[in-house]
Amino acid sequence: MKLICLDLEGVLVPEIWIAFAEATNIPELKRTTRDEPDYNKLMAFRLSILKEHGLGLKEIQNVIAGIDPLPGAKEFLDALREKTQVLILSDTFEQFAMPLMKKLGWPTLFCNSLEVAENGEITGVHMRCEKSKLSTVKALQSVGFTTIAAGDSYNDLAMIEAGEKGFLFRSTEQIRKDHPELPAFEEYDDLLNAILSAL
């Protein structure tokens, strides 16, 4: 059986941290995995900025409540799920993602969780496992699944390259340039056709 593994932010929904950066007028928080390959370093940086500004989970969740899936994302996901199983692999956190999963029709999501103090301060992150996207893909393959993956950022490359087929979607010019071997798409219809052709 073939499983589709998709990234979440930048592929199906807007980047949460960029939306929060814009809402709070803190440009430093616009830095994402498109810019920083080291996720642990990125999260440590984000948490230090939040602490500096006295912001916590509630403020981020208030912004997330106003975020909708990218135009066409739910239709794309629905079309894929009619043909095969889809798994969303994300480095986001369950405390962020649940309202977005509702808007996407409750697809299956594997992500991480936040450590939150009683006062709402985010004190740390609990990563599901090391190299979670690649580790998950390898685990799926070890029990007989074939994976096809799509994503947009540095932290998606390992799962994209590990699968039978892999695609970049709305990625950066630099990532596309560094990985010319990966088909790159900008529109959901094109990505959908490429994935369906690989099934």
Keywords:
199 residues, Rossmann fold, 7-stranded mixed β-sheet, 7 strands
Quick overview:
This protein has helices at residues 16-24, 39-53, 57-64, 73-83, 94-103, 132-142, 157-162, 173-178, 188-198; strands at 2-6, 85-93, 108-116, 122-126, 146-151, 165-169, 184-185. The protein has 199 residues and is α/β, with parallel strands linked by helices. Strands 4-3-2-1-5-6-7 form a 7-stranded mixed beta sheet, sandwiched between helices.
Helix/strand layout:
Elements: E1 2-6, H1 16-24, H2 39-53, H3 57-64, H4 73-83, E2 85-93, H5 94-103, E3 108-116, E4 122-126, H6 132-142, E5 146-151, H7 157-162, E6 165-169, H8 173-178, E7 184-185, H9 188-198
Parallel strand pairs: 1-2, 1-5, 2-3, 5-6, 6-7
Antiparallel strand pairs: 3-4
Helix pairs in contact: 3-5, 4-9
Word description of this protein:
With 199 residues, the chain is of the alpha/beta class. It has a domain at 2-13 and 69-112 and 127-198: HAD superfamily/HAD-like (Rossmann fold), CATH 3.40.50. 44% of the residues lie in helices and 21% in strands. The protein is built from nine helices and seven strands; from the N terminus they run E-H-H-H-H-E-H-E-E-H-E-H-E-H-E-H. It has a seven-stranded mixed sheet with strand order 4-3-2-1-5-6-7, sandwiched between helices. Strand 5 (146-151), helix 7 and strand 6 form a beta-alpha-beta unit. It is globular and about 50 Å long. It starts with a strand and ends with a helix.
